[in-house]
């Protein structure tokens, strides 16, 4: 059984989710288990202080045996009847929850804030029993055995007179009175742990997504490198490890490309230079024979023509090699399409005049593109040269520009013979060319160069037959 393929980003998020869930559960359970005992311990500590304070205040009245008739007893009773009408952290408090009673040295209740058990014998209750014997007296007693919240904490403090214990003061508080605070704290705790868990998951999700996106970016970069496409090296601001890997991939690609370029161009030059070299050698051998003046000029012209062809082939190959090794454009600038076309046409004015050709520029000056002016102009020169080579005698060349699905379509159309169907798909192949009317053989690199320039500009090249001849279109992104 094979494990399903789960994306790295999702795996990282699931791992983050599991860790957050386990941590939140463990922290919540631990805090909730410790919350109730901690609150009760804090309450007990407060009761101890209060009992000792009251023991000091009641000392004189208990020693004189007049506690029941004393001002202290009256205040104690008034205290038990007060209505605080307080609101403590969203919890209302309308009654006094503390009960205070005082016993003599025999454990008999002699004062009670609730006036409930005066005269009762509390000597056997742990709070009184232990306190009268000089020990810490405290107990927790359930008023209803079936109700765990009915338990009441009792904390006692001894009353001293001349160093002897003459009674005790007990302060009692129901655990039910502190339960709302415990419940409120639990709710707040669960809420904040949940909220923090969601925040951590969101941060973890963003981190997982960024990690996955960076990995996908690197994967697409590697795939395009492997396919031989031109692609700019991805930038990584946070994941510098990926940046290091992309640098390594680019370095490897450059090394492999360098080796491939050497092999490819050596083979290409060897193949393509055979024909002109053979022609030059044949012409030079013939020139060594006795010839007439016209024959000498004809074979010397062949040598010059084939030499120019070799020079053009070498120059084009070097130019194309530099272009193919260029991953992205260097200097982008805003270019007016009409101005660029006019400069290309102006450079070909001599050839247009010599062939008695008409050239029309139907390009509006509102069209602008972002690109590298030198490369785009070189591409247009190549298209113009091709049009001049294949245009019919006394024909016309037309430049047009129009919008096509958020792209600028810049086309050049020349009158003349159509391109055979079998050749249309191969015209951008390196060294593939059709015979020209003037008999001059092309290098077969011009359209391949134009295609490379279009790829760098995120555009496209399209060649088709038209009503009057051949139409070549360049698709470029419009400058925004």
Automatic annotation (TrEMBL):
GO molecular function: protein histidine kinase activity
Cellular location(s): Cell inner membrane
EC numbers: 2.7.13.3
UniProt keyword Transport, yes or no: no
Alphabetized InterPro entries for the sequence: HATPase_C_sf (IPR036890), HATPase_dom (IPR003594), His_kinase_dom (IPR005467), HisK_dim/P_dom (IPR003661), HisK_dim/P_sf (IPR036097), Sensor-like_sf (IPR029151), TCS_sensor_his_kinase (IPR050428)
Domain Histidine kinase, residue spans: 268-480
Database matches in SMART domains: HATPase_c, HisKA
Enzyme category, top tier: transferase
Reaction(s) this enzyme catalyzes, per UniProt: ATP + protein L-histidine = ADP + protein N-phospho-L-histidine
Segments traversing the membrane: 189-209
Keywords from the UniProt entry: Kinase, Membrane, Phosphoprotein, Transferase, Transmembrane, Transmembrane helix
PANTHER family xref list: HISTIDINE KINASE, SENSOR HISTIDINE KINASE YKOH
Name of the protein in its database record: histidine kinase
Lineage summary: Bacteria, Pseudomonadati, Pseudomonadota, Gammaproteobacteria, Vibrionales
């Amino acid at each position: 059984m094979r494990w399903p393929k789960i994306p790295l980003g999702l795996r990282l998020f699931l791992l983050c989710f599991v860790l957050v869930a386990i941590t939140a559960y463990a922290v919540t359970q631990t805090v909730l288990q410790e919350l109730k005992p901690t609150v009760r311990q804090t309450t007990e500590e407060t009761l101890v202080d209060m009992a000792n304070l009251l023991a000091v205040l009641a000392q004189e009245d208990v020693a004189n045996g007049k506690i029941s008739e004393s001002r202290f007893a009256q205040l104690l009773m008034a205290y038990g009847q007060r209505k605080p009408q307080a609101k403590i952290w969203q919890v209302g408090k309308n009654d006094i929850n503390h009960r205070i009673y005082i016993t003599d040295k025999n454990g008999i209740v002699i004062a009670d804030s609730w006036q409930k058990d005066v005269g009762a014998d509390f000597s056997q209750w742990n709070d009184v029993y232990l306190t009268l014997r000089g020990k810490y007296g405290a107990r927790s007693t359930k008023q209803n055995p079936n109700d765990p919240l009915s338990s009441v904490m009792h904390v006692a403090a001894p009353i001293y007179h001349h160093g002897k214990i003459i009674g005790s003061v007990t302060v009692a508080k129901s655990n039910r009175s502190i339960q709302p605070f415990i419940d409120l704290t639990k709710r707040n705790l669960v809420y904040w742990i949940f909220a923090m868990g969601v925040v951590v998951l969101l941060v973890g999700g963003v981190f997982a997504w960024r990690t996955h996106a960076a990995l996908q970016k690197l994967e697409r970069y590697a795939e395009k490198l492997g396919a031989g496409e031109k692609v700019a090296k991805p930038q990584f601001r946070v994941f510098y490890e990926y940046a290091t890997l992309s640098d390594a991939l680019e370095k490897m690609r450059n090394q492999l490309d360098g080796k491939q370029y050497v092999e490819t161009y050596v083979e290409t030059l060897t193949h393509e230079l055979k024909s002109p070299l053979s022609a030059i050698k044949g012409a030079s051998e013939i020139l060594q024979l006795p010839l007439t003046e016209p024959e000498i000029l004809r074979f010397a012209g062949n040598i010059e023509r084939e030499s120019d062809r070799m020079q053009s082939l070498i120059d084009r190959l070097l130019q194309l090699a530099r272009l193919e090794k260029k991953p992205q454009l260097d200097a982008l600038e805003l270019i007016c399409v009409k101005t660029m076309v006019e400069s290309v046409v102006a450079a070909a004015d001599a050839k247009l005049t010599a062939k008695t050709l008409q050239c029309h520029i139907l390009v509006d000056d509102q069209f602008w593109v972002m690109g590298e002016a030198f490369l785009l102009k070189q591409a247009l020169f190549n298209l113009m040269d091709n049009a001049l080579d294949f245009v019919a005698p006394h024909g016309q060349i037309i430049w047009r520009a129009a919008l096509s699905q958020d792209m600028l379509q810049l086309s050049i159309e020349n009158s003349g013979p159509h391109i055979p169907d079998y050749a249309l798909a191969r015209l951008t192949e390196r060294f593939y060319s059709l015979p020209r009317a003037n008999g001059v053989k092309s290098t077969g690199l011009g359209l391949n160069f134009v295609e490379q320039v279009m790829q760098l500009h995120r555009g496209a090249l399209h060649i088709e037959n038209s009503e009057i001849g051949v139409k070549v279109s360049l698709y470029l992104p419009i400058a925004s």
